[in-house]
Amino acid sequence: MLDAAMLLFGEVGYHTASLREVASRVGISHPGLLHHFSSKAVLLAAVLERRDEVDEAAFQADLDAGHDYFDALARIVERNAARPGIVELFATLSAEATSPDHPAHAFFQARYRTVVGSTTAEFERRRDEGRLRPGIDPDMAARLTVAVMDGMQIQWLLAADTPDDRPDMAAALRAQVAALLSD
Hints:
The chain is about 75% helix and about 0% strand. By secondary structure, the protein is mainly alpha-helical. The longest helix has 25 residues, at about 40-65. The relative contact order is 0.11.
């Protein structure tokens, strides 16, 4: 159910998607879907949590395997390139969620606080080790890094009909980080 909802939200956006369409795609009745998810907002929360759980587990596994923080981020971006529906879902919902009355508004606010916070902490660590270029503010570096990731996703999605023109999102992230680090 969550996978079908993820795909539908990614295709048409949260506001246009209906619970009836999600139910139809998974072959159950609308009341059957409501038994599992009492509202579209509850379903959306479950979809977003699942997406983050999958990515966080992969990120942590990469760190545990000895990958650098920024390499682990780039590996998530590489995996996302094989999941265009997930990339589209994230781009669509994050844009929709800028409205304070959107059910995912608080989720995305918290998510960005977490991602920017952990990335800032990593840049601070690099600064303390003398590996961040002089004059670079760790918080600004983190925000720029997240902006590159989000912006490259949009450019990648816009080039869906011309795959040869799709930017390499992970390479862009690596280039952004390399420009900030002195090692």
